[in-house]
Structure formats: C-alpha cells, structure tokens
Prior knowledge:
By secondary structure, this protein is an all-alpha fold. It has helices at about 20-25, 30-40, 45-55, 65-80, 90-95, 100, 105-110, 115-130, 135-150. The protein has one domain (about 20-150). It is built from nine helices and no strands. Helix 1 (about 20-25) packs parallel to helix 5. The longest helix is centred in the C-terminal third of the chain and has 17 residues, at about 135-150.
Amino acid sequence: MTRLQWESSGDPHVPGDLAVWKDILRQKTDSTVVRDIGKHADRVKSPDELVQAMFSLARAITDVGPLQMYLTLSELDGHRPPQRRLSPETVRLLARKYSEFSNQYWIFAEFPELSDASMARFLEVAGSIDATPNTTLRGNVLGTFQANVESGKFSPPRTNPS
C-alpha cells in the first residue's frame, strides 16, 4: 500500500489505462494465480477493481508478474509530470519487455523528462544488443551502450521535419 500512487480524485493511479491492464492480466503465464485473475480481467471496470486484482496477485510467487509491473510502472509514472504520463502504448511495451529489461527501468525514473519515444528506442537498442550472438561482441557493445546512456549521449533518432 505504501507504494500505491493516488490521483487527486482519490482513485488509485493506473499507468496507461485500464484496457492495457486488462491485456496485461490476460498475458500467458505459468502462474495459476495469475491465470485465474486473468480469466476475470474483463470484470475490472475501475482503478479500485484493478487494485483489488493486484492485491490478489500478491499470492503469486513471481518476480515478473502483473503486480510487479504495476508497482514499477506506477513508480515510473509517479515521477513524471501529469502532462507527460506514460501512454497506453508505452505501458504495453514496457510490460511486454518487463521480464527482459525491468532492472534497467529504474533509469527512466531518474530522468522523468524522457519521452515515451526515448524509452521505446532504449528498449529497441537494448533488445538488438541482447540478440547479438557473439558473447564478446555483445559484452563490448553493451559496455559502450551503458557508457553512452550514463553520459546522457543516448537519444532517440531525430526525424526529418520535411
């Protein structure tokens, strides 16, 4: 409860929107608890009901389930100004990549001014590095990428305005 984010209306904060979280709850999983909650995802009609589902997920023994995603993404979104909250598409992407890259998500909390496009680009680049078959090359590229991110030289590609 101490990590739960609240809206000014008194409702629990929902990163993205309820539709995204219904999809997240329905994701394929090995956890019986998560599957059982996911079967009833269509019944989630309000932020309060989503939080109730998240409480039920506290029984699931996992490091990468919907509850962990919700807490992490709520924390990330809570550091961002209201006009720059995570979009539903970004929440969906971050949830889909959670098992692979959640340990790196905390860097997004340190830089709340990052755009959704920057986060998506980070995951795209990190995914391509992770897919490099040569372990020595992957390690070298990963080190260079990490140094660029830490120095602030990583940014999404610029688009041509014309």
